[in-house]
TrEMBL record:
Identification of the protein by name: Uncharacterized protein
Transmembrane segments: 232-254, 266-284, 290-310, 382-402
Keyword Amino-acid biosynthesis tagged: no
Family: Belongs to the ligand-gated ion channel (TC 1.A.9) family.
Amino acid sequence: MAKCYMLYLVYLLIYDIHDVQAYSFEILSNLTTELFQTKSYDKTLRPRSDQSQNISLDVKFNFLSINKFDELEGKLVCTAFLGLGWTDDFLTWDYSTYPIGRFTLPQTLVWKPDFVLRNGFTEFKELGGSFYNVILTVDGDVAWNPYQVFETKCALDVTYFPFDSQTCDIVFTMWSHFTFQVSINPTVDNIVMDEYTSNSLWTIASTSQNVDNTGSRSVITYTLNIKRKPSYYVSTIILPVVFLGILNILVFVLPADAGEKMSYSITVALGFMVFLTLVSTQLPANSDNISMLSVYILIQICLGIFALVVSSIQLRIRHRDPNKELNKTYKYLVSFSRRCCKNENRVQSVANNQTKENIDLDKRVHAFDWNDFSSAIDFISFWFFTVIFVLSTIIIMILMTVG
């Protein structure tokens, strides 16, 4: 034990950089000998002369960066350091005898609060490390600034991905000390962001803190509201999906006789499935909430499959027996499509000598064939699919961005 203290004294002589004070190595050596050997300092005991008194633990959370946000595991990885402070009744000295205002010493030599991350993603471990120091002042005030990479659990809501915001809590608590023994006292009103380094995918929208000293153990919760930067996902997922949706509609512009019409529909449908797979790999397997982007892609896949079915039926109709007459419903659809296109209807000659102006519209006889009906299917399907595509795109995009 004596050898350890001698090594520590050499360390202090070389590395003490806090205050340039006029004191000798001998004075510092005598001081540490008195504190840790003469007074038999015990770091396993709560540093209060009166053990019924509470220790007020000053806490400040300095947030540095978001290293990673894993949506699949629901894990926030961030870097921060804590500013912790308390008073140790057994680490005080007479300044007139030892004219040293403050000095540093390894954290392993003094009592430290068992201040731990309660909602950590990994197993419990002590803050800091053996090479960390604490700062000790003449009045017994101890300052400890452990730096750490924290991995915390985070509840996810991917409904509005990639325009989503996530709320993550970083919860610290006293693990073995009760509130009447050690209570948490935040020294600032919020998370300190002075040294924060921005992240390329996430931005911090707001922060807050809440301390609870009413329970059996003192707890402080730091809340981060982080908002995703959507530009990457807009350019790599959303815009390509929208463009595929437009291509999906254009299948009804191709002539029915075109041999590539069916393969075109199949290719577009497969493209949607590829993007659905791409989105699913970036989202957690969560049944509580489903991404609206996934719903949008599913709608487009359904439209693509429906377009494929319509195109198949249309090709079948195109090659029907031309001698077989269209029924009244089919003729009405052809007539409707032509009126929308502002084309004149073809009218057969009438047996009597009535003029065309006196012909009752309900008694016109139209000479429509199956090719005309196939073209009418193209026209009606084009506008039907366009309306569904535009409405679904507008509604989903508004819900994702506003929600």
